[in-house]
């Protein structure tokens, strides 16, 4: 399989994306991979595969590598007298802003480049946790109760402590706090508002079970990963999560009764269908008293949740080969012609 | 005011966008305008203002004009030995696909170009009528009851005839039918499915009043147009609507009691706030028994609904001058540095 991994982005998850890309390079070592880095100034660079290590970017060495620009159908590398095309399927591996907020999907769609990843609608509904709640309400999927706070707002919180405070639009646990009592609230809000104007507050439910399930649709059928019960030390802080993005070892299947397993899968399908086509996503669920609640949707999971798939390479190949091209509307200037005719011009 | 009007796009509303741009050229004749045309192959052209007439595009004459490409901060015109920058505020006047579905907003955001128009989230919620319904449910705004049909689905419709059948993702009444009895349904569905995989069905309510209100937020305050009661001949078909996009004459204010007027404005504010900032939008409402229902949101209304504003030019100037720049997240490679240190590298 030939695949171009697009990573980086102007995002708080920029470094995490680099780690994800390095992990996938190892995981997909038998494939023909290219690497395109989007830096924080939104410039694209073609990265020599042998230079795919963290220090290349932290030291700014990528700036010596060829710069690319987007053009219809491919990334273009221009030199004084020639131009090289970098075409082929792109894997959008930009976590957070740019990659998951709809920007990069729009760019790839506009320039007619096939890609693995959420389309613009799916991005908007998964990137902002408020909109994920709306999506779930519309699709009759349970979520934990919540409140929204804006940075310019003074409002009493009606949810009982302990609570979770998190920025509406960030993944990877960035800016997230568990608040045990009211005296700790202001600090947690300050932290969360560093990253977003809107904050989501949810109850922190002791003893709730957490399960992660990844999957995708290819050629009309769903393909699921195993279900993992992620390790919890209250929750993953950013540094632990950061290490989490470099996971490549297969994990053990969660101990689950088959009713709950079926419920998790059918909830995943409900979320995915008619919205996430083209993407491999990971849904993080809560289970309480055998009821399934959606926690969040990761439309570009860390290192593509490779560790959840028995045969990750085959899965990715299957998805890449089932991507369909976008149809562009065409006009034949029928109305302008008919009006010109009517005017006698 | 200097303003760049971006129009065209690969959309069923391509021709309508051309008409809109020509109308605005006349309406804003005292201003310094530039015109950038996005053709159906997603190429950008700088259009000589004196050539801003419908036949330029229907005859393909724009192809002889300078081609532009997007780069950080501006549209760039390259010639053999030099490059010219086209910077400044853009008015996104691409109706329908590309302009209103989030694609063009993402491109302008990515390349750091200030623009009047909906951002990507706002685009997704207004472009697809299903998502507009979800938005209204979340914000407790009334809408008409509805059902969704997918092209591969056979489903009984539980709404009583007469009904309205419309594609989920098209404006300008394209593909829309009023169906009086079941025998006419199949034909109406065929028409609507020509344009989209999803179709919205709503009851056609006789005697319902329709009101249009445009507005925007600038420097923290709302600015409203007058409220119009649009002419109805059952509904506007595409050809009539097409002519409608060239409107530039001021219209009469609708006769309305002040309670309903206030309700329309407060509903508009609820829809707009924290979502449509940066855009001048037109909301089309229904009123039945003094209750306000949202019909649809036009985030880029035809010819910017200029005919609804007492002083359109001042309004647009105010909006243009209140646009704020997007902040890009930056990283200092803190985590990569700390991990490298821990590893002793």
The tally of strands of chain A reads 16
Biggest sheet: strand arrangement of chain A: 6-5-4-3-2-1-7-8
Please give the share of residues in helix of chain A: 25-40%
Query: Could you give the distance between the termini of chain A?
Result: 55 Å
Unreliable stretches of chain A: none
Structural class of chain A: alpha+beta
The biggest beta sheet of chain A reads: 8 strands, mixed
Mean of the pLDDT scores of chain A?
A: 91
> Shape of chain A from CA axes?
globular
| CATH top level assignment of the largest domain in chain A | Alpha Beta
User: What is the CATH architecture assignment of the largest domain in chain A?
Assistant: 2-Layer Sandwich
Task: Please give the oligomerization state of what you see.
Answer: homodimer
CATH superfamily of the largest domain in chain A: ATP-grasp fold, B domain
Taken together, the total number of domains of chain A comes to: 3
Biggest interface, which chains? A-B, 62 and 62 residues
Question: Overview of this structure, please?
Answer:
The structure is a homodimer of 345-residue chains. With 345 residues, chain A is α+β, with helices and mostly antiparallel strands. Chain A folds into 3 domains: 2-117, 3-Layer(aba) Sandwich (Rossmann fold), CATH 3.40.50.20; 123-142 and 206-321, 2-Layer Sandwich (D-amino Acid Aminotransferase, Chain A, domain 1), CATH 3.30.470.20; 147-203, ATP-grasp fold, A domain (Dna Ligase, domain 1), CATH 3.30.1490.20. The first copy, chain A, has 10 helices and 16 strands. In chain A, a hairpin with a 4-residue loop joins strand 5 (74-78) and strand 6. In chain A, helix 4 packs across helix 5. The mean pLDDT of chain A is 91. At the A-B interface, helix 1, helix 2, strand 4, helix 3 and helix 4 of A face helix 1, helix 2, strand 4, helix 3 and helix 4 of B. Chains A, B: Pathway: Cell wall biogenesis; peptidoglycan biosynthesis. Chains A, B: Cell wall formation. Chains A, B: Its EC number is 6.3.2.4.
């Amino acid at each position: 399989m030939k695949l171009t991994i697009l990573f980086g982005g102007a995002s708080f998850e920029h470094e995490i994306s680099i780690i994800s890309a390095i992990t996938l390079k190892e995981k997909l070592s038998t494939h023909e991979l290219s690497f395109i880095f989007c830096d924080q100034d939104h410039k694209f660079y073609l990265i020599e595969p042998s230079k795919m290590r963290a220090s290349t970017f932290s030291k700014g060495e990528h700036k010596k590598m060829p710069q690319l620009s987007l053009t219809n159908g491919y990334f273009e590398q221009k030199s004084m007298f020639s131009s090289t095309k970098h075409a082929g399927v792109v894997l959008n591996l930009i976590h957070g802003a740019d990659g998951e907020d709809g920007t990069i999907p729009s760019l790839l769609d506009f320039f007619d480049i096939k890609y693995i990843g959420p389309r613009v609608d799916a991005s908007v509904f998964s990137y902002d946790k408020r909109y994920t709640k709306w999506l779930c309400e519309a699709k009759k999927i349970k979520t934990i109760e919540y409140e929204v706070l804006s940075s310019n707002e003074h409002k009493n919180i009606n949810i009982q402590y302990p609570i979770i405070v998190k920025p509406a639009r960030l993944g990877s646990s960035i800016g997230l706090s568990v608040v045990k009592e009211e005296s700790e609230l202001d600090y947690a809000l300050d932290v969360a508002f560093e990253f977003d104007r809107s904050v989501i507050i949810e109850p922190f439910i002791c003893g709730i079970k957490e399960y992660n399930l990844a999957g995708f649709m290819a050629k009309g059928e769903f393909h699921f990963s195993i279900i993992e019960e992620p390790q919890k030390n209250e929750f993953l802080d950013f540094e632990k999560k950061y290490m989490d993005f470099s996971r490549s070892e297969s994990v053990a299947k969660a101990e689950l009764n088959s009713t709950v397993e079926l419920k998790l899968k059918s909830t995943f399908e409900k979320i995915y269908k008619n919205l996430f086509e083209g993407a491999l996503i990971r849904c993080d669920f809560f289970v309480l008293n055998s009821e399934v609640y959606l926690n969040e949707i990761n439309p570009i999971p860390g290192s593509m949740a490779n560790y959840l798939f028995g045969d990750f390479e085959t899965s990715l190949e299957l998805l890449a080969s089932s991507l369909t091209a976008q149809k562009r509307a065409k006009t034949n200037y029928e109305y302008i012609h008919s009006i010109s005719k009517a005017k006698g011009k």
